[in-house]
């Protein structure tokens, strides 16, 4: 499942550069994650890098975009052209 940044985001700018898929961008008020690009770092890292660096723990699993590990891996392969 893709990740979601909640309104607790403090715009600290640390998550955006950590995303290997470029899924995180500055929104109108807080950072946002594009679900079609978010693989929860599957294929890149063992853990979601944005979650690891977030100082306020405002990045959660997006209940509106549930995906299995296999679906996340397939998305990773589609995005990167690997596989």
Automatic annotation (TrEMBL):
Its cofactor is [4Fe-4S] cluster. Keywords: 4Fe-4S, Electron transport, Iron, Iron-sulfur, Metal-binding, Transport. Residues 1-29 form the 4Fe-4S ferredoxin-type domain. GO terms for molecular function: 4 iron, 4 sulfur cluster binding; metal ion binding. It holds the Pfam family Fer4. One of its GO terms (cellular component) is cytoplasm. This is Ferredoxin.
